[in-house]
Amino acid sequence: MASVTLSNVSKSYGAFEVIDNLNLTVDDGAFTVFVGPSGCGKSTLLRMIAGLEPITKGDLVIDGRRVNDADPIERGVAMVFQNYALYPHMTVEQNIGFSLRMAGLGKPDIEARVVAAAQTLQIEPLLKRKPAQLSGGQRQRVAIGRAIVRDPEVFLFDEPLSNLDAELRVSMRVEIAKLHNKLGSTMIYVTHDQTEAMTLADKIVVMRDGKIAQSGTPDELYDNPDNLFVAGFIGSPRMNFLRAELTQGSLKLAAGPTLSAAGLPDAGEALVGLRPENFVLDGGDASLVVKVDVVENLGGTRYLYGTTGSGEALVVEVRDRAGIKAGDNVQVGINAARSMVFAASGQRVRPGH
Amino acid sequence: MIGRVPWWTVIVVGVLAVCWVVPVLGIVLTSIRPPADVALGWWRLDNIRFTLDAWQRVWVEYPLAESFFYTALLAALATLGTMLLTPAAAYAFHFLKFRSRRLLLIIIINAFVLPQQVVVIPLFTLWRDMKLIDNPLAVLIPYVGMSFAWSIFLVKNFLEDFPKELIEAAKIDGCGPIKTLQHVVLPNATSPIFAVGVLQFLWSWNALLLPMLYLRSMVPLPVLLTKVSGTYEMNWDLRSVAAIVTTIVPLIVFVVFQRQFAAGSQTRTGAKE
Question: Could you say which of A53, A72, A151, B156 would form a disulfide bridge with A47 (CB–CB 3.0 to 4.6 Å)?
């Protein structure tokens, strides 16, 4: 187990900066998820930690040691690849034991550790098979087995679930969470799927264009995003953004109602962020009329996809089964306390700034 | 019907096959008929007699057995050398980064455009100065060296499709470049390596020019073949036997290993297809 610290880390290919002066600490034993849209540099960052990409500038410190120039094996990292990268000519047993064999361990030692890893992942019956004879989920388990058998300081996962089908993805997600609870090791996990990030992470690092947009616990990012990007990225369905004018402590929505914004500095043109669950059908601090285009029924909850009077799209979560149909005009109340205001620059407008 | 070959393919392939088989048949027949009977052509049916006389005499009159052994030895060593060195070189050129890698590769591949005849004389003077004339190395070094042009190209092309993640996984698992080559790349690159091996074997076996010039005491089969025809006699029957002996090994090798040529570069990584 170890903490990972990146200070002023940059990565560039020629003149093209992929990672731009990034500072981050991954706590010992924490499950940290790098999330962001494709091309944001999250995988590159992971590969830099793994030792697969050289670091252009800055320091990478694992367990108190600067390891910029160390081989992956000296860094004590193990990695699970998106497409598993199992050695096709080796059996599951040999795949899992390969790193131990390279480290020069004796046969009985290797066997004991391979069996222990296989038991943890419940793949013991598969040990004699070749990767081609395994299903996607089983291959992923073997890939994870190959990582845990080494008992590494840091686990790195590079979008490990994106090649699995939806159902398997959910169950493997739970298993990875269990594995983290059991091993208590430092894990860094890269994904573009915010649901995976929310469900697995102790700490989420949202990345955009090679920079950290915001980092924090899932709840912090969900409840208190720093900027428009994070607000829109975290949460499903997405947060609604409504155009508004913020002047003298009052927020005039283009869609009609005015909300009180006491304590917020003037920002002029702004966007108000409201999550689908921040609406109520009765009451609320202010209300607006939504023309419902589509009703999505998930059983317990329904999502109303509608349009406001000002022509802005809006998603509203409804808990009761009041027979709302597509085409209806519905009056929804806003829970103003949960609203967030973003300036035109995309930064959050907070009181006293 | 889908998957069925059109009728004309059968005819074209049949005609081609006949073109190839007829001379072989001729050689075989010449070797087992008395020379007098085939003087006007092996297809003549005036006198039909068979004899194994030539098959017995050629071993005595010419060092055919000895040549067979030398040929096999030289071809085997040349093939082994290429099969060992080519994958290593192809791996280095494809996966490792070093100075002037590209330039070096271009120079090696460009040996392709050099005909053997161009290097014959400079090599001869070099071997003479190094006292390597009549030493097996005098032919083995150019056999292997000149094979790099096409063999590295062939194996490197295969590695283009080699999954990069496997190399990275090996790195994470603690392999340096040599161990990665040994444990991960080689076991998954057997088909191009065998293809290179078979081609190199055929070419080394059939080589005529270099051994004729650089070897004295060791006479491989193709060189011997030129000597079987006597000064006054054409020795058609003996030449036929020698030709059959010379051809049979490459033919067997090709038939046994032909599947390697058809094998594509699919390496199953265990990734979802």
Answer: A53
Dist. CA A116–CA A122, nearest whole Å: 10
CA distances from A243 to A131, A253, A266, A273, A329 (A): 53, 6, 15, 9, 20
pLDDT of residue A48: 94
Q: Which residue of B has its CA nearest to A158?
A: B165
Mutation for B interface: A74, A77, A80, A87, most B CBs within 10 A? A87
Q: Are residues B13 and B132 in the same domain?
A: no
Question: Looking at beta carbons, which residues of chain B come within 8 Å of A48?
Answer: none
- Which among A232, A262, A296 is the end of a domain? A232
Residues A29 and A15 in one domain: yes
Name the burial class of residue A278, with classes exposed (0-12), middle (13-18) and buried (19+) by CB atoms within 10 angstroms of its CB: buried
Residue B50 is predicted with a pLDDT of 86
Residue from the list B171, B174, B272 with its beta carbon closest to the beta carbon of A103: B174
Question: Which residues, numbered 126 to 185 in chain A, qualify as contacts with chain B under a Cβ-Cβ cut-off of 8 Å?
Answer: 131-132, 134, 136, 139, 142, 146, 163
In a domain, B41, yes or no: yes
Span A22-37, pLDDT tens digits: 999 999 999 999 999 9
Do A249 and A154 belong to one domain?
Answer: no
Quick one: pLDDT band at residue B170, thresholds 50, 70, 90? very high
pLDDT category at A14 given cuts 50, 70, 90 is confident
Expressed as residue numbers, the domain containing A293 is 237-343
Summarize the confidence of residues B56-71 as an average pLDDT: 89
Domain that holds residue B138: 65-262
Look at chain B and count its residues. 273
In a domain, A348, yes or no: no
* Candidates A79, A85, A98; nearest CB to B269: A85
Decide if B173 and A136 are in contact by the 8 Å CB cutoff. Answer: no
Q: Are B222 and B206 in contact (CB under 8 A)?
A: yes
When CB atoms are compared, the residue of A50, A99, A139 closest to B270 is: A139
Q: Examine the domain organization and report whether B85 and B25 are in the same domain.
A: no
**Is residue A113 less than 8 Å (CB to CB) from chain B?**
no
Tell me, what CATH number does A154's domain have?
Answer: 3.40.50.300
pLDDT, residue A51, reads 93
Distance CA A203, CA A220 (A): 9
| Cβ separation B173–A73 shorter than 8 A | yes
Extract the tokens encoding B52.
């194994």
Number of domains chain A contains: 2
Q: Number of residue pairs across A and B with CB atoms under 8 Å?
A: 84
Same domain, A228 and A328: no
User: Is the ipTM value over 0.90, yes or no?
Assistant: no
Number of domains in chain B: 2
Cβ neighbours of residue B194 closer than 8 Å, sequence gap 6 or more: B257, B260
A332 bridge partner residues: A288
Measuring CA to CA, how many Å separate A159 from each of A164, A283, B24, B166?
10, 43, 61, 16
CB of B103 within 8 Å of a chain A CB? The answer is no
Are residues A294 and A194 part of one domain? no
